[in-house]
Amino acid sequence: MTTGRIIGEGMLPADAGLVVMNVTSVCFLAQYIRTGIPLVAKTITVDGGAVQDPKVVVAPLGTSFKDIFEFCGGFKSEPRKILMGGPMMGINVYDLNAPLLKNNNAVLAFDENQMVPNEEQPCIRCGRCTRNCPFHLMPVNIYKAYGEENVEKLQELKVNLCMECGCCSYVCPAKRHLVTTNKLAKKLLREKGGRK
């Protein structure tokens, strides 16, 4: 706790008088103050088994992912899945003509070997999801409450505290889609008038 301030459930850092920035943003801010040049390019990681020549590149904002992959030699095999961001919290890219945005830090193209489909299995109540959650949430209980559309239980389980890091899904031996369910549960709370 650097500042000693607590950001409550459903609050943003600004609500507590704080600004949270990553190192890249702080470095850019220093550069902007020095030069006056706005953010026009991003340094991003281009990687994955389907990429011909993985590398870190500096690309202008607005560059299509298609052009970025072509700069890296194109694809050596048909990508099975493309993510904008990292493997745990990344978002699917469905259109290679989508532009590079200021919040992108990576684009990953996974091949067939990296994307072995895993079917969900019944929960074995091992507790790994809870032990690995940075906020000590109970993803398996959230999963159940979401399935029942139990808004009160979702609020009680504090699903809004989930930062969607993906740790619960990563460690789950049953390959349950826990982080996806947490996202959907938060959406359900918003729609049903729960806390935001």
Structural class: alpha+beta
Stretches with pLDDT under 50, minimum 5 residues: none
Mean pLDDT score: 89
How would you characterize the largest beta sheet? 5 strands, mixed
Task: Note the total helix count.
Answer: 7
Shape by Cα distribution? flat
CATH level 3 topology of the largest domain: Ubiquitin-like (UB roll)
Could you write a compact summary of the structure shown?
Helices cover 30% and strands 12% of the residues. By secondary structure, it is α+β, with helices and mostly antiparallel strands.
Description:
The chain contains seven helices and five strands; from the N terminus they run αββαβββααααα. It is an alpha+beta fold and 196 residues long. The protein folds into two domains: 40-114, Roll (Ubiquitin-like (UB roll)), CATH 3.10.20.600; 128-191, no CATH class. Strands 2-1-5-3-4 form a five-stranded mixed sheet, with helices on one face. Helix 4 (139-147) packs across helix 7 (178-191). It is flat, with a radius of gyration of 20 Å. The two termini are 24 Å apart.
Q: Keywords, please?
A:
196 residues, alpha+beta, Ubiquitin-like (UB roll), 2 domains, five-stranded mixed β-sheet, 12% strand, flat
List the helices and strands and how they pair.
Blueprint: H1 23-35, E1 41-47, E2 55-60, H2 65-71, E3 81-84, E4 91-92, E5 106-110, H3 128-132, H4 139-147, H5 151-156, H6 167-171, H7 178-191
Helix pairs in contact: 4-7
